[in-house]
Each structure stands twice: as C-alpha cells, then as structure tokens.
Amino acid sequence: MNLLAKLQDDMKTAMKAGDKDRLSVIRMLISDVKIIDLQPTKPTEEQAVAAYGKKLRKGMEEYEKLGKADQVAKLKAELAIVESYLPKKASAEETERLVDEFLAKNTFTEKQIGPAMGAFMKAHGLQVEAAIVNPMLRKKLAGK
Known about the structure:
This protein is mainly α. The chain has seven helices and no strands. The protein has two domains: 81 residues, Uncharacterised protein YqeY/AIM41, N-terminal domain (Hypothetical Protein Yqey, Chain: A, domain1), CATH 1.10.1510; 52 residues.
C-alpha cells in the first residue's frame, strides 16, 4: 500500500473516531502528497511528509524561543503523528556502518565534505539523520 492510500485510510479511521487533532495533521499530509506533481523537483511521497515534519520542527524551535509551551506541546503531538508515516531512522551504529561503506566505495578528501555529504544523503537520505551523518563524515574524512 502506498503512502497516500495509507493516509486516506487513516483519515477515515480518525474521522470515525472523532480524533480532530490527528485528522487535521493527516489532511495536511494528504494535501502535501497530492501536490507533488505540481512541484518542479518531483519529490517522493516520503520526502513530502519529511518536509512537513521539518516545518513542524522549525515551528517548535521558534515557539520555544518565544516561551510558548502550549504551542510547543501541540507541535510535538503533530510531529509524532507525522513521524509515524516516515521510515525509521538508522541508529548511530548503523549510520556509522553506512558511512564506512560509502567511504570504501568513494574517494573524497577532507576538503570535499560538501560533495561527499550530498552524495551520501542522495543515497541514504530518508534512512539517516543528517545531523548525525555530517560530524561523522567530517571525522572520518579528516582521519583518512
């Protein structure tokens, strides 16, 4: 079952259960997934959902700076719903193994961290957290 069909089934379930918070998040996700064809880059359904999650994280950061705990809690709840539709991220150990395999196949120097990071994220983007990969990749390239 593709992601859009799963979202639509979950929307029906949320409607029947009267779960308005979950329903509103699912409707936003469905909207973002449906407009993929209109975007010039043509992201995947998972990338569209991940982009919505990223927007929520940024909103949380802003509300935390402003000291609005109630809004932060609301966005955390929404983010939990969004993350349930994303593939699970690799652990630090699994990420390190992926970085080692990537560096074994490719030759990058310490000064080529940008292209190395770009190539790695293109290959493993949804599987890993970029905030974990970047320092790990820098350390391993510096050690070569």
